[in-house]
Specification:
This protein has about 425 residues and is mostly helical. It has three domains: about 60 residues, Single Sheet (Rubrerythrin, domain 2), CATH 2.20.28; about 200 residues, Citrate Synthase, domain 1; about 110 residues, Cytochrome p450-Terp, domain 2. About 50% of the residues lie in helices and about 5% in strands. The chain contains 18 helices and six strands. A hairpin with a 2-residue loop joins β5 and β6. The protein is globular and about 80 Å long. About 40% of the residues are buried. Bound molecules: D-malate. Keywords: Transferase, Tricarboxylic acid cycle.
């Protein structure tokens, strides 16, 4: 029997259908609410609003579950390659050997970026934030790669997957005053990225398998996270039928904010500031508890995970492995482990569920891998790209309407225009 939710407004009662997802998630379908009652809902930050029905990622914030297309994040991070996960997200199933080879080869065929795009890139200041540069370059792709006459976005999907790592490394090379590296298609996706980042004309880069495995894991952990801020942005921009490039570029901008992807950069900057101030973590723990201190611990707690972030559990282990394998002894990382230990044992943080999240550990690993702080969010964007693409594709396949939220107007009511000379 169909389930209904009943709403009483004055002396009238209305019924709205309850819909149930494949994991038994419940939603009240209010599509007819305004037509039937003249009311809308208000939900600042959309915390109780399901914007879509999606078959890509399942997340249970209470139980700390994250699955892509039904596969647990723990298993994927342990066993899969990032490109395999990208294929899974974008096309819905894990690839066969032949499908994987075709996907990887098509990506390799498109890793070179149009040389004329380098002219645009050259115009950016040397200290430009790489997220701003990346979003501009991705948007510029719509001017350079207009050719998919079939009307399908397949080629554009491949181009984005192929060129994003190449373009991302340009900013770093420029900040170092070094020539950019061209892709090396004999390397796998992660190793190719590391090579473009770190190889020098005078010193070839030897990819360390521990480093490339850690990067593979990080990219998988970031690959999708259902309707987060940047993904919702991608879907919303795409809902106007803007191009895939324009939509992904908008997603990169949304991700750049410190409340979203920019948090991993903020974590390391916070740790560095604590180190500069003498490294007394207990002082900062006390400040974090004091509402008037103006200090906020970055990288602790999460909007949707109420007990723990499953990605953080996986990444913590990876962080420990990477630090041990690379023999890293960095005072900033020592401060990180002291903060982590304090937060996990202190009643104040435990009661408020302020446990270290994925941003906390990802910043630590990226630092250990030698990736500069302002590139951390770019790494998140490279990881999130297949998720954005998958969500954009799903939104189009579902023929979703243009996104158009409403509002409750709280401004001035109608008033007459007063000429400037008569205004007080
Ligand atoms: C994400 O992975 O997108 C972040 O954890 C933010 C979120 O899900 O809201």
């Amino acid at each position: 029997m169909s389930e209904f939710a009943e709403l009483s407004l004055g002396d009238k009662k209305y019924q709205f259908p309850v819909i149930t997802g494949s994991e038994d998630e419940k939603a009240i379908d209010i599509a007819k609410l305004r037509d039937e009652t003249g009311h809308i809902t208000i939900d600042s930050g959309y915390k109780n609003t399901g914007a879509t029905k999606s078959a890509i990622t399942f997340l249970d914030g209470e139980l700390g579950i994250l699955r892509y297309r039904g596969y647990s994040i723990e298993e994927l991070a342990e066993k899969a390659s990032f490109l395999e996960v990208a294929y899974l997200l974008i096309y819905g199933e894990l690839p066969t050997t032949a499908q994987y080879a075709e996907f990887e080869n098509s990506i390799k065929m498109h890793t070179i970026v149009n040389e004329d795009m380098r002219k645009i890139f050259e115009g950016f200041p040397v200290n430009a934030h790489p997220m701003g540069v990346l979003s501009a370059m991705v948007c510029a792709m719509s001017a350079f790669y207009t050719g998919d006459k079939s009307g399908s976005d397949e080629l554009n999907i491949i181009r984005l997957m192929a060129k994003m790592p190449s373009m991302a490394t340009w900013s770093y090379k420029k900040s170092q005053g070094h020539p950019v590296n061209y892709p090396n298609n004999s390397l796998d996706y992660c190793s190719n990225f590391l090579n473009m980042m770190f190889a020098l004309p005078v010193a070839p880069y030897q990819v360390n398998p521990v480093v490339s495995a850690a990067l593979n894991k990080l990219l998988i952990l970031h690959a999708d996270h259902e309707q987060n801020c940047s993904t919702s942005t991608v879907r919303l921009v795409g809902s106007s039928h803007a191009s895939l490039y324009a939509s992904i570029s908008a997603g990169i901008n949304a991700l750049s904010g410190p409340l979203h992807g920019g948090a991993n950069q903020e974590v390391i900057e916070m740790l560095e500031a604590i180190k500069e101030d003498g490294g007394d973590t207990s002082k900062y723990i006390a400040m974090a508890k004091d509402k008037n201190s103006g200090f906020r611990l970055m990288g602790f707690g999460h909007r949707v995970y109420k007990n723990f972030d499953p990605r953080a559990r996986i990444i913590k282990k990876a962080a420990d492995d990477v630090l041990a394998a690379l023999g890293i002894n960095d005072p900033v990382l020592k401060i990180a482990s002291e903060l982590e230990a304090a937060a996990l044992s202190d009643e104040y943080f435990v009661a408020r569920k302020l446990y270290p999240n994925v941003d906390f550990y990802s910043g630590i690993i990226y630092r250990a891998l030698g990736i500069p702080t302002d590139m951390f969010t770019v790494m998140f964007a490279i990881g999130r790209l297949p998720g954005w693409i998958a969500q954009w594709k799903e939104m189009k396949a579902n023929k979703e309407p243009i996104g158009r939220p409403r509002q409750v107007y709280v401004g001035a009511t109608e008033r007459a225009y007063v000429s400037m000379s008569e205004r007080a």
